[in-house]
């Protein structure tokens, strides 16, 4: 298990950069009296030591910001609305403000520079895929409160995780297709690469096949990216490749809309020709035609729980290492059941 170390000081930075403490202070205050070469050497030392300026550190220690940070890969998907609602509501009730940042950058040639951290928040909630392990380790080693959503921490870091029960619910919804609707050729659309929700949902998909003695067929698995357009293209390609299937587990509800579009363009009907099921129970799912059979994930509750756990850490209490919130199967008509 990793042990925490004392935060670096301005003296450490000065020693590392071979300058005086006064010079470091001038760099921190953007003084024109420091040469460009010296300023760059000091900034390099600050980065290498992960130094937080002393005035900011005093504010952090006293928890005076009364602000929590939320870092997400993006916020465009329907999934994020209830998550944000839960986080914002719980933070406000506790007397905290909320700052939100996304890590998706349109210009992939430019490095992402995170704007939330020790200097402007009392703690961070990090969504899966929004932070690199190295930065997460730095925050942990400096004793900064962090809670992860849908992502396990690197080995040796005791960072609390809030997630949902993906595997068993994915297995149930696929077994519903097999047992109730006699489907045998079931497509599974993965989410983003490395996404733990997607990994556990695929484990559930495979477990359902195995429990019914259906061989796993890799040609029936493709990337839908938890995204409308990617899922649409994946199903179009399968149809072009003449892959035979009688059902699709779309991975999530956003992808389901793309699947519906691809099937409609190919002249196929849901559920008469192909049964379709999703995951999350996004608000629009019941209004699709036909309405979408899916798994109801307690997304708003995930957000509320994350805030509660983060506040426990901030208040120096012991937070739970892992909380898995239960899900619920929602049967509608896209699988072939009566509406």
Can you characterise this structure?
It is a single chain. With 339 residues, the chain is α/β, with parallel strands linked by helices. Helix content is 39%, strand content 14%. It is built from 11 helices and 12 strands. The strands form 3 sheets. It has a 6-stranded parallel sheet, with helices on both faces. A 4-stranded parallel sheet has the order 7-6-8-9, sandwiched between helices. Helix 7 runs parallel beside helix 8. The relative contact order is 0.12. Mean pLDDT is 88; it is low at 54-63 and 106-113.
Short description:
The protein is an alpha/beta fold and 339 residues long. The protein is built from 11 helices and 12 strands. Among the domains are: 1-51, 434 Repressor (Amino-terminal Domain) (Orthogonal Bundle); 167-297, 3-Layer(aba) Sandwich (Rossmann fold).
Keywords, please?
339 residues, alpha/beta, 434 Repressor (Amino-terminal Domain), Rossmann fold, 6-stranded parallel sheet, 4-stranded parallel sheet, 39% helix, elongated
Structural class: alpha/beta
Q: Going across the biggest sheet, name each strand in turn.
A: 2-1-3-4-5-11
| Unreliable runs | 54-63, 106-113
CATH class designation of the domain at 167-297: Alpha Beta
Largest sheet data: 6 strands, parallel
- The amount of helix comes to 25-40%
